[in-house]
């Protein structure tokens, strides 16, 4: 078996364990009348930024925590927090603060019993290997399997939202950057 096939088998195994019910619960929190904030660290943060971009493409007001143009978060907003372990302090602490002021939280983590999962209004468990937990075996380094799988999961969530909102590919293309 080629290395690429082995990687794809790992990803397929993880994606096969992601709950449709959890995706549906998260989808309900993402509505056009809410501002969406995105939070993640390291590679998980990069995957989260891709999610933010796709939400923008389908017409959402979305901000990435840590960017200089990100406004303060407020009661009624939605925060999407991504942490493989569910314990990353730079993700967990701001998430807990947001929750205290009335922000709805969508958490994506590999650990369904983690502090991030517990503080989330909707949690999506993506059980890929992470740097902090090797109970899921992977041939890949550190949290690569989680990062790949969470990227696909968030893309699936955007697709669900776009279908619900009747946003076509052509409409999404119209918001794509024209400064390239």
TrEMBL record:
GO BP term, pick one: carbohydrate derivative metabolic process
InterPro entries, alphabetized: PHI/rmpB (IPR017552), SIS_dom (IPR001347), SIS_dom_sf (IPR046348)
Keyword list, A-Z: Isomerase
Domain SIS intervals: 26-167
Listed GO MF terms: carbohydrate derivative binding; isomerase activity
Keyword Isomerase: yes
PROSITE patterns, alphabetized: SIS
Family per similarity comment: Belongs to the SIS family. PHI subfamily.
UniProt-recorded name of the protein: 6-phospho 3-hexuloisomerase
Lineage of the organism: Bacteria, Bacillati, Bacillota, Bacilli, Lactobacillales
